[in-house]
Amino acid sequence: MDELLHYVACILVDHPESVVVESETDDDGTVVLRLTVRPDDIGKVIGKQGRTARAMRNLMHAAAEQRQVRVNVQFVDA
To answer: Which domains does the chain have, with CATH numbers?
Structure first.
């Protein structure tokens, strides 16, 4: 799933070489994905009123549902 998030984020930002996705699993089995981009690209990832971020989260929830896991996507600027 982290590859999918990385792929989508690289399409959106101006500096795809700085996109980093970190993945970890919580105690309850939830997969936490942290997407780190440059500060000048964070607006492109979040979008107007958070619409792009919401769409990315929906996409990741759909991918996680196929694998029968829960996912949480967090956005971080470097």
So the answer is: 2-77 (3.30.300.20)
